[in-house]
Amino acid sequence: MKFGIFFELSVPQPLGHADEIQAYQDALEQSRLADELGFTTAWAVEHHFLQEYSHCSAPEVFLTAVAMSTSRLRVGHGGVVCVPQINHPVRVAERAAALDILSGGRLEVGTARASTITELGGFMADPDSTKMSWDEYIDVLPRMWTEERVRYDGTTFTLPERPVVPKPVQDPHPPLWVTVTSPGTERDAADRGIGCLGVAAAGFKEQERRTGEYRKRIQQCDPAGRAVNDQVATMNYLFCHEDDATASRIGGTMFNAFGMLNSQLLWAREVYPTPAYRSLGNLAPGGVDLVRDDDPAARRPVPEGVAIGDPDRIVKAIKIWESMGVDAINFLLNTANLVPQDQVLASMRLFAAEVMPHFATGGN
Amino acid sequence: MLSGTADPEAMAASAPYVAAPATEPLVCHGAELLQIVYQIDGHARQEVLPPALHPVNPPVIIVSVLRAAESDAGPFTLAETRVVCRSGARGRGFHVSDFIDGEEAARLLARRWGYRARPAAVALRLRYHGAAAEVRADGRLLLDARLLDPVPLAPADLRFTDSMHLARTPRGSRLIQVERAYDVTAAQRGRPVLAAFEAAGWGEPRLRPSHPISAVSLTGDVVFRPVRYLCRADVSASEGTERLDHA
């Protein structure tokens, strides 16, 4: 079992420069501590225009800073948006290769396609075609990293023959992942031989189904890259404290706040009906005739398996994830600076001291 | 997280009085719907919502026109404008106002579901090459909405947003959660055009449509469901939600 940290870089409203700077500086300090404590990877999302929820719009810059201030921690895009209007594939390949060089071969490349109209509409991207463009990126990125010259005639973009430089350090190239929020994306990952990077906190049952489906299908994959990445990672929340009630109080506040911010996003599907977004991104999917958004007072309960509690409780939860075949868990550590930084760091230290030893970890 | 800043009592002064929210559904057979989603200027996104509701980013409105060929309240055509928002964690549309062609339905929807119904000539025309809707009242063109370049959609591609209607009730000012169920037989998505939208005529001059997002038309059956929830307009949904006894 590997343990990572996952950054959305949420910032409280009303927005102030100091809060934004604090979110970035706290995240860098958390990354340095994670490096010391044996966490494996620091992941950063890519979101645009999502005030409060995520101010991580230039993850390649943030991840470069993380890489430059750590020595063993891997750095991961969780994930880079594979939509031509937002990131041209050549720029994705170039930036990733440069970051892989600068980090000494510590880059993981998660891929995504954005799911809010705030982002897609802001770049005038066509929601109908993001699955197509994602698929084309998955095909062409490994070629750009490994072939001297690349030409590509595609549906969502075309590239006349060019030498894409530089090339990454890792041989044959950095591991590829896809962020998984919608049911079915694990099948897309398995069929292409890329890692399954869960970015929505799934329950035990859903994760077991997802992992089983992935493991079964990847046996017969047609790899998009030059190497198969067959890892399954899930997202979780972390607040570890000696006193379980204190952990629940502080961590539960962070958990619920993140859920509320997430529910405020304007999902593509909500205002732009399309088969490309039949599920609601990070929200629970379902058919229109079956799902009713009922009681507006209802709060999202902290589901089973969330790593909020004392060390014993967290060990038990992670054992269950481990038994399902999950290879890695990536933790959100804070929401909108709600938890004071000293408490976040203390939680990480306690987790490393009391929880990590219960698991065989690949470490960093 | 941002909340609305409008004064709910001032807003409620012109709202309908709902003595008893609907306990029975209003079933509309053979219904047609045109729904246009537009981004609006963001300057007033908090000011047009009561404190119970949260704005989304970017702010958008849903303008819809529903024609019910057959219903328990007779045939009617209803045009309404809503501001997309959140009630707690739930997606909702805050009802701004509506115009309706059909007297009996107008009375029923106002008295039982809190529609701010005003009489008008409301027209909806669904065709294979697109759809168009118009609202005219007192000689003014209040709405000219069109769907162009239609492409077919599956019913499973659609998602509908329930509404929050501010009304005066025996409990005081309340947001009535209005839920509609859809049994869709055919649906199309196309390019939206709001050729005319007279915001002042709709009762909220600060709504300035600025950028098109989507247009959908559909045919099927639509049911206005019995009311299950009321919410205070001055506090958050977690504090102010009231479940009705009959629900």
TrEMBL record, chain A:
Listed InterPro entries:
Bact_Lucif_Oxidored, Luciferase-like_dom, Luciferase-like_sf
The Luciferase-like domain extends over 1-327
Q: Which UniProt keywords apply?
A: Monooxygenase, Oxidoreductase
| Superkingdom per UniProt | Bacteria
Give TM regions: none
Q: What is the official name of this protein in its record? A: LLM class flavin-dependent oxidoreductase
Tell me which species this is from.
Streptomyces nogalater
UniProtKB/TrEMBL annotation, chain B:
Listed InterPro entries: Acetoacetate_decarboxylase (IPR010451), ADC_dom_sf (IPR023375)
Give the domain of life: Bacteria
UniProt xrefs under SUPFAM superfamilies: Acetoacetate decarboxylase-like
* Pfam families assigned to the protein according to its UniProt record, in alphabetical order: ADC
Q: What's the protein called, per UniProt?
A: Acetoacetate decarboxylase family protein
Give the originating organism: Streptomyces nogalater
Source lineage: Bacteria, Bacillati, Actinomycetota, Actinomycetes, Kitasatosporales
